[in-house]
Amino acid sequence: MRIRSIGICDKDIDYASNLMDGINRIGEGEFSACAFSDTKCLKEFVKQDELDLLLTSEVVDGVRCILLTEDEEMRHSEISESGVLYKYQSVTDVVREIRKLFKPAEISVRKRCRFIAVYSPLGRCGKTSLAKALAAQDEVRGGLYVGMENFASENSDADILYLLKQRSPDLITALGNAVIQESDFSVLYASGAYIDTHDVLGTDIELLNRELDRLGRFSTVCYDIGSAAFTDLSIFNYFDLIYFPVLDDEVSVKKLKGFRQLIYSAGMNEKFSRCIEIKVPDCKYSSPEMIKAIWQAGR
Question: Would you tell me how many other CB atoms lie within 10 Å of the CB of residue 12?
């Protein structure tokens, strides 16, 4: 499959750069995006390199263009029909719309899952709402929310973490049976026992990710990781993205400072320097306010 070259040209270079990063992350293996702040730089680029598609506020001759708009009325329009794309929507939605412009055979429908961790040492920071929102936003093959909180009140009869630790051949079957469907996303409660989550290692997460990928049912898997499950720092090496909910009250600031010192002493500072810090709004996971907060945090 040929990787499609996507250009983004917008006077707001921060917007263009962040959209570029999002497309490259979510569309890895499908798209390669680059950003331009003005048409002069863009025209110089296309003299030497080819663009398959340009997202722009100004039409450029010789390039297939989709116009970026701030008009709210265009939020739900399909770019394949209108030739216009609403700027301020989730990157997942942008990538989904871009996919529609190319022949289905040119896009891999079995593309690897994107694995996300939502973690914070703080309580009552909106971690679970955020994790569900991230799972619900996936509209490619669907998102999976994986509950790995300290004490899950809801969990399946299958003890997934036990089978995982035992490297049981029944794990893949148990995973398929344990996944339940909610309105906007699928759910997997790995275990309700604190001691099970506390003993999870990085190698366990690596295997669980691989088995969830084998199911072929999801393009986003989002883990909701409880603070008590935090024992092996290496588990965070097995995620493509880490969302880190924060609060700005005095007690929370002190806790976050202590956590960052722990990360530094464990040699994980580089990994967490790329995590996405976010103040999670007090609202439903499916609300426009939550979607806006996720978009702004990724900028």
Answer: 13
Q: Which two tokens stand for residue 56?
A: 């722009």
**Closest among 75, 53, 68 to 12, alpha carbons compared:** 68
Whether the predicted model's global pTM rises above the 0.85 cut: no
Q: Which of the 8 DSSP states describes residue 263?
A: H
H helical segments located in 60-168: 79-82, 91-99, 127-136, 160-165
Distance from C-alpha of 24 to C-alpha of 240, rounded to nearest angstrom: 12
Q: Are 246 and 240 in contact (CB under 8 A)?
A: no
Q: Which residues pair with 225 in a beta bridge?
A: 119, 148
H or E segment to which residue 50 belongs: none
Tell me the C-alpha to C-alpha distance, in Å, between residue 227 and each of 140, 230, 250: 30, 5, 19
Rounded CA Rg of the chain? 20
The pair phi, psi for residue 233, each rounded to 5°, is -60, -25
Buried-exposed string 254-276: b where 16+ CB fall within 10 A, e elsewhere: ebbeebeeebeeeeeeebbeebe
Between CA 124 and CA 128 the distance in angstroms is: 9
Q: What is the mean pLDDT of each run of 10 residues along the chain (299 residues)?
A: 83 90 86 88 82 86 86 73 81 85 51 84 92 89 86 59 88 90 89 67 90 88 78 84 94 91 80 85 93 83
DSSP string, 159-177: -HHHHHHTT-TTHHHHHHH
Contact 91, 26 (CB under 8 A): yes
CA distances in angstroms from 208 to 5, 112, 176, 223, listed in the order given: 33, 14, 12, 11
Q: Which two tokens stand for residue 155?
A: 């969990």
